[in-house]
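Entry for the shared binder. Reason: the reviewer on the internal report wants the predicted structure included alongside the sequence.
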Amino acid sequence: MHQQSYIRGIREGIPVGLGYFVVSFTIGIAARKASLTPLQATIMSFTNNTSAGQFASFALIASGAPYVEMAISQAVINLRYCLMSCALSQKVDGNLPFYHRLFLAFGITDEIFGLSIGQKGKLDPWYTYGVMSVAVPGWSLGTLAGILSTGVLPRTFLNAMNIALYGMFIAIFMPAAREDKKLLPVIFISMALSALVQMLPAFDFISSGMKIIILTLVISMGAALIMPVPEEKG
């Protein structure tokens, strides 16, 4: 059972890994500007699988910020993953050992969470491990390729690679939306509100990470009130 889940996770995680490889090229370029070595940048991407957190850390590293400031900034920027962890904790077996929960928490990204939470029934952690097996190396190797290719590839080509990130989101959520039509309006409302909050100057005082947290709470609570999911008997 676990082996089948792991293999299925690898298979379904390949598009995420490929997308991560392309998107993280820009992470490598930013790492080079912050004077990181290829080894340092690769280790950072392997242990910190978040583009917003890494870009913020590069600016702090370049300015010589203290470790405490870097730790606090990462906690704030990546606070949305706490919400994802809480949601995923309801998806796994209540008797799941702590070390499994620890490994699952380490691998939570937007895309890995989307695939994991979309599984029917209880989540087998080995499925998520399968996705992580291709997604995390893809992000790390893409960063390495990006920092090594600095000055070789044209800037316009590297900027165009960022589109792959949105392609991954579509590939993850649209299949689930086809099965459950209730998800379609939630997805489109989320996209519209996210774009609105990003464009309106009135919200400029809120950080990007905090905007995601606020939108997640507001939209999820609204959807739960308007379209509640009936509890399973037993």
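Summary line for the report: The chain has a mean pLDDT of 82.
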